[in-house]
């Protein structure tokens, strides 16, 4: 499975537990975005699912890493995710937050690397 965003974010990530401060930062940023940032939530799930398929060699039919459906959305416990995946998600959250805050001088938003990746995913049939 080829997912360029996953490939990029997973390069050189350590296989050690993410610090509790960084784990909390992931949760805090996601809560700040709110449920309206479906773009980010879809990419987060795609990263989780990709890691699950790449590293755990599972059939892909189950919700990975004991995720649960709550109020029509998936919920995961960051502390129970594999170490490398925690780092991948931290890298994504920080980059996405940075891109959300980036605005051109003329007031228009720059297309982010993440939005470009989503466009490429659509071309490949991922929705």
Please explain how this structure is put together.
- The structure is a single chain.
- This protein has 127 residues and is mainly alpha-helical.
- It has one domain.
- The protein is 53% helix and 5% strand.
- It has five helices and two strands.
- It has helices at 4-9, 20-33, 38-55, 83-100, 113-123; strands at 68-70, 73-75.
- Strands 1-2 form a two-stranded antiparallel ribbon.
- A hairpin with a 2-residue loop joins strand 1 and strand 2 (73-75).
- Helix 3 runs antiparallel to helix 4 (83-100).
- The longest helix has 18 residues, at 38-55.
- The model has no long low-confidence stretch (mean pLDDT 80).
Question: Summarize this, please?
Answer:
With 127 residues, this protein is mainly alpha-helical. Helix content is 53%, strand content 5%.
Total number of distinct structural domains: 1
Amount of beta strand: under 5%
The whole-number mean of residue pLDDT values reads: 80
**H/E element sequence:** HHHEEHH
Q: Kindly, what is the distance between the CA atoms of the first and last residues, rounded to a whole number of angstroms?
A: 15 Å
Q: What is the count of DSSP helices, taking H or I runs of 4+ residues?
A: 5
Largest sheet: 2 strands, antiparallel
- Stretches where pLDDT is under 50 for at least 5 consecutive residues are none
* Structural category: mainly alpha
Strand element count:
2
Helix content: 40-55%
Shape: globular
What's the alpha carbon Rg, rounded to whole Å? Answer: 15 Å
Strands side by side in the biggest sheet:
1-2
């Amino acid at each position: 499975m080829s997912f360029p965003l996953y490939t990029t974010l997973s390069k050189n990530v350590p296989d050690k537990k993410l610090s509790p401060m960084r784990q909390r930062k992931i949760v805090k940023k996601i809560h700040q975005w709110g449920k309206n940032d479906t773009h980010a939530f879809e990419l987060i799930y795609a990263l989780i699912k990709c890691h699950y398929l790449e590293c755990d060699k599972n059939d892909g039919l189950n919700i990975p890493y004991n995720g649960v459906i709550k109020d029509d959305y998936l919920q995961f416990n960051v502390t129970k995710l594999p170490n490398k995946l925690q780092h991948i998600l931290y890298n994504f959250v920080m980059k996405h937050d940075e891109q959300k805050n980036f605005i051109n001088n003329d007031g228009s938003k720059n297309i982010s690397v993440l939005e470009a990746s989503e466009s490429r995913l659509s071309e490949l049939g991922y929705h």
